[in-house]
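FIELD: query
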Amino acid sequence: MRFVNFTFAALLACCLFAVSPAAAQTNMPAQGDMHGHQTPAPAQGDIHGHGDKAPQGDMASMDPDVKAHPSCPLCGMSRGKFAHSRMLLEYEDGTSYGACSLHCAVLEMAVSLDKAPTRILVGDYGTKKLIDAEKAYWVIGGDQPGVMSKRAKWAFGDKAAADAYIKQHGGQLADFDAVIKAAFEDMAADTKMIRERRKMMKAKQAS
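FIELD: result
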């Protein structure tokens, strides 16, 4: 299994958490450790502007990983609703972490440098089934907005599906290392975007 160097990522993540109101207001899990391993926070809808709460009867909510981690501990998003972008980190100590997106997954990996992932899984954009993130065919960019990120980063288990997506929506084929790097390159701009959306939502709710 390849291991990406997250040292620079950890520094960036810590800086973002220190200055970001969004991070300060993150829903912490009711039980479990400080990173939400195994015991995620209850879903509270979309707090950053990506639509509404997950619809009832979402088929992805039946998947074991979504049952175990129904919402992202970092942002509170429904992993069933965002099954096409969700990620699952399995650690060598037997714990696991379910994130809504690559954005939240890389932050978790950056601040958990003492925990080595044995497997990193991601939802296939088309089938919504979990696939090996390190072996997936990733597409960066295109005309579709990403989850927790302006620049989309989608995973496909089949190269033909990735090529078809690029033909229809644009984007660039990439491997896992490249997509991890892209996620951190976009972190500052994406954090600003999320903060602005949260501010708009709060203003709308107050009016």
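FIELD: remark
Residues 48 and 108 are 18 Å apart (CA to CA).
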